[in-house]
Amino acid sequence: MPLMESIIDFVRRYKFLVALLVLGPPLIYLAVYFFAPFLITILYSFGFIGRCGVVTWKLTIKYYQQALKLVYLKVFYNSVVLAGITTIGSLLMAYPVAYFIAVKAPKKWKNALVVSMMIPYWVDFLLRTYALMNIFTMIGIMFTYEAVVLGMIYDYLPFMVLPLYANLEKLDKSLLEASYTLGATPMKTFLKVTLPLSMPGIASGTILVFVPAIGEFIVPSMLGGVSVSTIGILTWDLFLKFHNWWRGAALSILYIAVVLVTLIIYMKKVGELEI
Amino acid sequence: MSIRDKLMAFYSALVYAFLYLPIVVVIIFSFNESKTLGRFTGFSLKWYGVLIEDKAIWVAFYNSLNVAVLTTAVSIFLGTLAAYGMVRLDIGGKGTIDSLLYIPIIIPEIAEALSLLLFYKFTGYNLGWLTVLLGHIAFDISFVYVVVRARLAGFDRSLEEASLTLGANEVQTFLKVTLPLSMPGIIAAGLIAFTLSFDDFIKTAFTTGPGFQTLPLIIWSQSARGGVGPELNALTTVIMATSMALAYAYAKLTIERH
Description:
heterodimer; A: mainly alpha; two-stranded antiparallel sheet; 79% helix; 2% strand; B: mainly alpha; MetI-like fold
């Protein structure tokens, strides 16, 4: 096959070009539809008015001053606390399940168990929260903090289970046997072998749950009513209700800064992030 | 099975029950004759009749599916390219590229959604199908990247080396060894990408224009107005059945590959 040979020749000879062909498309896409929009958001947060071509701009930091009011800071704090509770709750709920599926369950059941974990999440996010509204109304906890926390865990669980499962599935079982043979109890084996090895899975699960949970808008507004205020609800209102894009942009930039600082602290404590 | 294992199995069963109970309740009450919540007054299909007549829901369902399928296809392609490039190619600057690919996961969705809106306003896009689709893909690439990369980095690289040593070339090795071994990761990534797009409410709400509604948007306005009701319960049931059929197809695909 001359075509095949010329492809292989190309792959071997032009390593850099191959890298460009492989990594170029995803990076260019993200540059245009992810990073460029953020640059524009930064412009707006400093008072930018206009569009491509026509620009009237008066540089100002007043939108940041407005966004740093005490009322807003309190909302920030509430959002981070709620996201923390959600992450811990879903980790406690997910770990034994992920471990069970990956290590203990019979091999022929594994796929079925993973798929049944996913099935409820093929149902629309809003519908799932709406489904909880049925039950919460029946047991009378609608519009409480408990309802919001339960709803958050319910909605974010698979994003904790799947990376944990992917990690634990690769766990070399002979390491566990070695630990048993050398006299360690199951508890000690878990703490000294399994848990440290599953740290990358825990880290990625935490990132996948904690970060979107801070900005969560649907669950607190549907299940919490007016009793809970989060950064997501605030941003939504500023943009889609009051059309105050400039203050919204400033708030969003501050919010991203908070998220990044949280992540940096987290990575310093836990170590290198590896998913 | 030891006691410990049985306890773990029991705990897992409880978690699965927690996942399914709200959905089972919705299904049961979609067949409820009266609108009363919490009391089953009699079996009826009338809410499904109401649903079938509702043209807006059909259009929105088609729109949601259309965007989710296209998003999944494009983001699997781009995300897998990125994962393969990062794990297998010998290049410099990997740390920086890796951080760039992670940022969309790290940045909260609502912040990304509003930045996309500002971007579309700035560049003069007409808000609608295309703006929704482009935004969904931008978000999903990174999730595919993370999942597929974990799989690629996880399996034994010596399998690929063995294949090369035994006379297979790079392309054959990629097609016969690397790709099949990463398949579970790619399928898992596809599941996540589809779900994230099909579920997406916030980015869609920020980036859509008049005339392009997806299911989450319709459901948002309906449940905000009328609260819990049997027609929305019926809709949930229909989507659940569709989703289960798709999930079943996936399961079959996965089992046949192993």
